[in-house]
Specification:
Length: 477
């Protein structure tokens, strides 16, 4: 039997004996790490087809890693082959600067760096370390989504390695079915090695910063009046040393907004006085994407995320979520770094695209919450590099049951928000794929687009080579 290391490719093949193997398994959450038989790091798109042929002919599972940020094990494999796109991370602007070409393993930080130098803005996810690949294939929502919609709605073309090894370009004219499917269908149709996205002129420095309040209920009035050029990120957290429930409000106000930052922020200062009120400006998307670096660096390494879409800030959803979060983080000290992060924004342009125009179905006006379960785990890295800065509760070993308890809590609060919103609005908005876990029903994630996606799965991946992620059953009828 031939060995995968004998394949003639330009990139690297790592096995457990290779010096860089452990580093290549690293993911944003410790829970996402699995021991692969091989990690292949392609340097050229043509490296990928022989690896796929090898894996499929040897019955090995194939996983693909973009930025390694999804809090599942979708980008990892136990005993299979991981195709790690990290070396394919080049970003180039077209001569007229209106389109950016992004290789499949780039992170949003790589993209913003290139756009920022030419005063162009690009609609993507807000944090620099989040992978373009995983987020774009499932939507990609950020500060600019109200004005320019999701990242996926700005895709003009892509280059995809298909399960049978063909490398194809897809756009509205070329392979239009594939183009429709990759805009919201996730990783189920191929490895996207190049994304071509529209860019926009940057209007100037955005207003940002933090307002911090002792924990009370946030009423969401802002949402009703927000324009597409303003957004609040509202975080429920228990920062040390007191670990009391706290509300952290991080505004983003575009330089292009009609109302002044003062007008927008005034209500937040009148209704309650913040204990911290620090407003500043960020010159570009790169700076904004680093805004949470300090808290990310100190955050426990066990992370699981779920998301919730809801039509408005209903009082019962806010009160019920608050009570559930306060109780959970009080009862489970190991997991008290768990947060709820509410996007208070105007969905604007997202709702201008029809639910069947792309594979991404959630187009009704909605708000969004990310529910992050974070809990401590024993880690040599943590002890050596950050122990001096951490409260003692963060550096002891987690209790084994915390994994289970936190996962169950995440599921229960996500279900609560979805069910309460359905009862209040009369409509189930479903589950957003970037924060799905894979245990939801496919109908909830893909909605009315599921039948077409199943047909296209049969066309583009009949043998289910892309078996990781939120899998779509092929329909051969
Ligand atoms: C702290 C944090 C904050 C976040 N905030 C946001 C946010 O504000 N907005 C938002 O939209 N999302 C957000 N996300 C969610 C994020 O979009 C998803 O986790 C996304 O999957 C990350 O992409 P990745 O490439 O890093 O993931 P990976 O873990 O590398 O991959 C996730 C899935 O996508 C597949 N994949 C990745 N790249 C490719 C490719 N090029 N071709 C084919 N398949 C590929 C993988 O195989 C895997 O199935 C956040 C995540 C985290 C951890």
């Amino acid at each position: 039997m031939s060995d995968i290391t004998s394949l003639k490719i330009q990139g690297k093949v790592l096995s457990p004996e290779s010096p860089d193997y452990q580093k290549a398994l690293h993911r944003n959450s410790d829970l996402s790490i699995l021991d692969a038989a091989y990690v292949v790091q392609p340097e050229a798109y043509t490296d990928i087809p022989p690896v796929l042929a090898y894996a499929t002919s040897h019955g090995l599972e194939v996983a693909v890693t973009g930025g390694g940020c999804h809090s599942s094990t979708w980008a990892s494999s136990k005993g299979g082959v991981v195709i790690d796109l990290g070396r394919l991370n080049k970003v180039t602007l077209s001569a007229d600067k209106k389109v950016v070409t992004i290789q499949g393993g780039a992170r949003w930080g790589d993209v913003y760096e290139v756009g920022g130098k030419e005063q162009r803005e690009i609609p993507g996810a807000p944090l620099w370390f989040v992978g373009v690949g995983g987020s774009l294939l499932s939507g990609a929502s950020g500060y600019l989504s109200g004005r320019y919609s999701l990242g996926i709605d700005n895709l003009v073309a892509a280059t995809v390695v298909l399960a049978d090894g063909r490398i194809v370009r897809t756009s509205a004219e070329d392979e239009p079915d594939l183009f429709w499917a990759i805009r919201g269908g996730g990783n189920q149709f191929g490895i996207v090695v190049e994304f071509e996205l529209r860019t926009y002129p940057a209007p100037g420095p955005a207003t940002t910063g933090t307002l911090i309040y002792p924990g009370t209920e946030f009423d969401g009035e802002f949402h009703e009046q927000a324009s597409v050029d303003e957004k609040l990120t509202v975080v429920w957290a228990r920062p040390g040393p007191h670990f009391k429930p706290t509300i952290i409000v991080a505004p983003w106000i575009s330089a292009g907004a009609e109302r002044s930052p003062h007008q927008i922020l005034e209500p937040l200062r009148i209704k309650a006085t913040p204990v911290v009120d620090k407003i500043t400006t960020a010159p570009d998307q790169t700076t904004l994407s680093h805004a949470s670096d300090a808290s990310q660096a100190r955050a426990p390494r066990r992370l699981q995320i779920r998301g919730g879409a809801f039509s408005k800030f209903w009082t019962d959803i806010m009160v019920g979520s608050w009570e559930r979060w306060v109780k959970f983080t009080e009862d489970n000290e190991d997991a008290r770094a768990s947060t709820l992060i509410w996007d208070v924004r105007n969905p604007g342009a997202i709702t201008k695209v029809g639910p069947t125009d792309t594979a991404y179905p959630i187009r009704k006006p909605h708000c969004f919450v990310a529910i992050q379960g974070r809990w401590v785990s024993f880690s040599i890295h943590l002890i050596e590099e950050t122990a001096d800065h951490l409260p003692p509760c963060m550096i002891r070993n987690t209790r084994p049951e915390t994994d289970e308890v936190t996962s169950a809590w995440l599921r229960s609060i996500a279900d609560f928000i979805r069910e309460a919103n359905t009862a209040n609005s009369g409509e189930d908005l479903g589950v957003i794929l970037t924060m799905a876990k894979g245990d939801e029903l496919p109908e909830a994630v893909f909605g009315q687009n599921l039948p077409r996606l199943r047909k296209l799965k049969a066309k583009y991946d009949p043998k289910n080579v892309w078996s990781k992620g939120f899998t779509i059953e092929p329909d051969f009828s």
